[in-house]
UniProtKB/TrEMBL annotation:
Source organism of this protein record: Dreissena polymorpha
Top-rank taxon, per record: Eukaryota
Full protein name: Uncharacterized protein
Length: 90
């Protein structure tokens, strides 16, 4: 569930909360070649930049998704204005 891409943000929950994707079962069984270890300060800086970028992009996606949902909801909205003499249920 946390590794599934959310259609409203365009990112996985892991990417939004952790700033990276977690390993899948296949990656644990068949590991990819390891990368050279980076200094901690460089890793933290890259992680921070990644999370800022992901959250900015997710905000833009959410704004577009909200506009899309509002448009769809407004289309289904019944727009029958009532007049003073109309009968309504109380």
């Amino acid at each position: 569930m946390r590794s599934a891409v959310c259609r409203s943000t365009g990112f996985t929950a892991n990417r939004m909360m952790l700033g990276r994707e977690v390993y899948t079962t296949a990656e644990l069984v068949y590991p990819l070649p390891t990368h050279e270890a980076k200094p901690v300060t460089e890793y933290v800086h890259n992680l921070e930049q990644s999370m800022v970028s992901v959250h900015e992009t997710a905000r833009k996606c959410l704004n577009g998704y909200q506009a899309h949902m509002k448009r769809d909801d407004d289309v289904r909205l019944c727009q029958n204005p009532y007049r003073v003499s109309d009968l309504v249920c109380a």
